[in-house]
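Q: I'm teaching a short session on how sequence maps to structure, and I want students to see two examples side by side rather than one. Could you give me a first protein with its sequence written out and its structure tokens following it? Keep the formatting plain so it prints cleanly on a handout.
A: Of course. Example one:
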Amino acid sequence: MIPHEPRSRALVVVTLSLLAGTVAACGRIPGQFEVIQNQVPMGGCTIDTNRMLYRGEGHLDLSLVSPSASTAYLMFPLVINNLSASSSGSADPNEIAVNSFAVDIGTSKQSYLPPKVQDLFKTLNQDPNAPDYALLHYSLPWAATISSGGGVIAAGVDAFPVELAQRVLATGDVTNSSTSMLVNIRVRIFGNTKSQSMESDPFDYPVYVCNGCLVASDLACPVSGAPALTGNACNIAQDDRVDCCSLNGNLICPAIASAP
């Protein structure tokens, strides 16, 4: 049987085509362990469990991805444990101890990739034993506990590797249009109760990928007055438009303001 727990990003990871068989073999029961939605970060990159603070689709601007960033796109899954709550006052036997996330980047029926990006993804998917395969299929460690009976946590997941963003940008096939490319990011969570291993239902999240669509302005640095649009609080390359400025050929976002 294919290992239930995904291996680390640097090692071999199972393919999507085999995952359906894994789910059946491991006995995952739909609805027990779920990602409800992707949360919207608040000021200071604070992630709340409020179910009204969600985002139904993402936007990734390749022109804003820093080579030194930990990821090109961050997801904030709101995760729920629907196992039955304990009726006794003792320790919760259905509490889930989360240990990892699995991420698979690909397409859905709604997705579309420019021709050169299609070729790139096809190449990366060719050999599950090759290191580059882990740019699209990888696991990440995570530690948290979720109480049974509807307990929730808000987590953080590196959902699009910087190197993958760089390779997609290098194809030259992604434009400034906010709808030039649409990928599907599938997230699953793994953990354990006191008596069983747990795998969440898969959560599919659409992300539009562009080259420059989140740059609201680009003036010479410094700009007069504080920028009106300061971008996403957690990652400047995603979801929110940002006012930028140029300094010695480098794009600075948010823009540097001149001294009052």
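Q: Perfect. Now a second example for contrast.
A: Example two:
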Amino acid sequence: MLLALPLLLFTLVGYLAPIAFMLERSIDNSIPHGLLSRTSAALADWHGDELPGEGAFLALVSDLHDAEAAGRTALLGKHLNYDQEGFRTLLVKTVRALPLDGSGPAMTALGSVDTRWLDVQTWQVLERAARPYTLRNLLTVVDLKQLPDGDITALPEKSRIHLEILARTILVSAAVCALCALIGLPVALVLATVSDRTRNLLLILVLLPFWTPVLVRTTAWIVLLQNEGVINRLLMHFDLAESPLPLIFSRTGVLIAMTHVLLPYMIIPIYVAMKSVPENYIRASLSLGANPLVTLRRVYFPLISPGIRNGSMLVFVLALGYYITPALVGGPSDQMLSYLISFHTAQTLNWGLAAALSLLLLVSMGLLFWVLTRALGPVKFQFEAGR
């Protein structure tokens, strides 16, 4: 344990802790809670069935005054807009029109600026948005939303995109896994049966993608798959196609590029499993009267099935989180969940939604991994003796 302690601490500090902090952002609501601290305290005992008292209106005026003085009104409105569209406009309008000096009845002053302040639903949204934690992002990633009265309902049809993208991510990952298995089996069989000198050369070719950056490999596929690329020119030169095939910025391009990148993860486990099969088992099966097909189905395939299972699960899990290849080679309808996470992190700066999407991907991956291990058995990594 003492020898393993540095590695455990490194894993905790460098891997688990950042993931935990990131996922905590999916329910974190500290910015609006901090900017509406007085309002949150004033609404703590509010039941939500009628307008709150004058104290809540005074607390909101004070919070808006402090937010405006700190230059954070726009930031507060941005977060409130996540709960109800138009809230940012309402805040900006209120701050500009209302003399935030605390004079006069706050309820009358806010109502004169905009009648929405005299609507119970507005205060229901405000009360929920001022809490320190929120379920808004977690509901959004499963295409749900919370109404002002607290009921949960489905998002409008045009906004239901997250579960569709999750299904697309799983479908593309499964297709890549199947393609890698179809290509990896014969390649691994060749590696397991050729001479040592030839095997070493072929292993270098198989492992070559590991030594090339992902961005370089993906860019190379863009050159090959484009309409005027090498592949389309060859197809048209040999009259196999009358016009350029849509290989780039399509699902076909995504599958080709991802299969090329992830293929070594399928070949190596299958190759190791094939090398571990004793040749005496095959000879014994044939000598006892089994034909080659029966030997393949009942003797050889069960012995190499752990390698196929291990390679398939590795490829599938890695494909679920792929981002660069689909983003560069695929079209708008081919983007996966990881692209959406990057989009909200870098473009919209909605870290809460990005964290919720990360949690959705993590949970989905865990559930799929659990189902696969229950159906196929646990992953066991095999290594050839002496290698």
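Q: What should students look for in example two?
A: Point them to this: Strands lie at 144-146, 152-154. Also worth mentioning: DSSP finds 19 helices and two strands in the chain.
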